[in-house]
Amino acid sequence: MSVVLQSNSGWVLDSQSLIDRGYARCITWTGHHKSHVKCNFKRQCFDILKSHYDMSGRVDGGHTVMTQKTEKCAKKRKRKHGELNQGEIDAKAFHEKIRSIILEGTKSLVDSAQSLGYLSGETETSKDPLPSQDCRLAALCEMAKELPLVADEEQEWTQSLLTEEGVASHVDLFSQVTENSEAWAAVVPLMGEEYIIPHDTAFLLSDFTRIQPLVQCGRRFDVIVIDPPWENKSVKRSRRYSSLPSSQLKRLPVPLLGSPGCLVVTWVTNRPSHLRFVRDELYPHWGVEVVAEWFWVKVTTSGEFVFPLDSPHKKPYEVLVLGRYRPANDHTSPLQTANVPVEDKRLIVSVPSALHSQKPSLSEVLKLYVGAEAKCLELFARSLQPGWTSWGNEVLKFQHISYFDLEPADTSKAEATEDAAET
């Protein structure tokens, strides 16, 4: 069950189930021979069994209890840095403002989930190491910039991933939107690697300089989810991915991609300056009206915060800013759901992935506000979702076969399901 429960406080999600639903029917080929496989995202990626309390004290009733080691670190930090800077003061004020919402809402949701047997801490753990794949997609996007652009009138902006025989065809991933319109997921060779592409999905592998195919393919979206590569010290130190200055986000062609009334959802780090930028500059620049702030709360498989709630370093939550695209001079009919009110201060509680920057899918949560048949787009995506279009320079990162467990499927059941779908 991908949505474990819903209440007035928000939702509890099973992130792995949300991923796996896109691969209930998966096909692979050996030459022209087709076979069915059972495909699941690796379980160990969601085996978050313990809180990181040893890093900054233990938690008692939602409050951080300073250990001797933590107290020493805190004093050392105070001696080194002196008084809080303005950014730290703002962050502390924001945390105090929402602290009770996070604490009380999470407790309510976790208690309800545990009454259903979820977040009980009883899970089959895997001793296998986390998958580690050297992602070269961003570098390939850089290389693709050297390729000449085709004149607009000559360009086909979309292409099929599969041929009529079902075998992966030769595709240009960098200058065309690639579609898998089949009703099953497929294991396909791309750029010398194997990737698993979910059913009914489309994607474009590019950066800002090659985003034009997404605009030119003529689609208008009812949901746009944005996960920007925000600049911060942690990213610079780890060099996990290239960050982007906030001002560059204004270049995203959201007004050309969103339908009137489109719901725009942006993931924001806990830096107040980023939050202010989204609310006061970015959304007004696009003609998006802020309607709500939600919080993703990260918990262990036992329902504890993954970090102490009052940790001065890392918080167990992230912010989502939701808005509606309200074009000033567009008189086309907006979405039927464009005026559905979006409740403020809702929580999304889930066990996070141990893989860096892998967010939970919002598809099920957002259906209430946009309808089940909404056209959905994710910008700066690192994975694909059924029914969604995705764009980014690492859009296939978590589709690499190394992140999945594959085993032969029950062929008779799979073929019966396939025949039923075709009829």
From TrEMBL:
<dbReference type="GO" id="GO:0003676">
    <property type="term" value="F:nucleic acid binding"/>
</dbReference>
<dbReference type="GO" id="GO:0005829">
    <property type="term" value="C:cytosol"/>
</dbReference>
<dbReference type="GO" id="GO:0032259">
    <property type="term" value="P:methylation"/>
</dbReference>
<dbReference type="GO" id="GO:0008173">
    <property type="term" value="F:RNA methyltransferase activity"/>
</dbReference>
<dbReference type="InterPro" id="IPR029063">
    <property type="entry name" value="SAM-dependent_MTases_sf"/>
</dbReference>
<comment type="similarity">
    <text>Belongs to the MT-A70-like family.</text>
</comment>
<dbReference type="InterPro" id="IPR007757">
    <property type="entry name" value="MT-A70-like"/>
</dbReference>
<dbReference type="Pfam" id="PF05063">
    <property type="entry name" value="MT-A70"/>
</dbReference>
<dbReference type="GO" id="GO:0009007">
    <property type="term" value="F:site-specific DNA-methyltransferase (adenine-specific) activity"/>
</dbReference>
<protein>
    <submittedName>
        <fullName>Methyltransferase 4, N6-adenosine</fullName>
    </submittedName>
</protein>
<dbReference type="InterPro" id="IPR002052">
    <property type="entry name" value="DNA_methylase_N6_adenine_CS"/>
</dbReference>
<dbReference type="GO" id="GO:0005634">
    <property type="term" value="C:nucleus"/>
</dbReference>
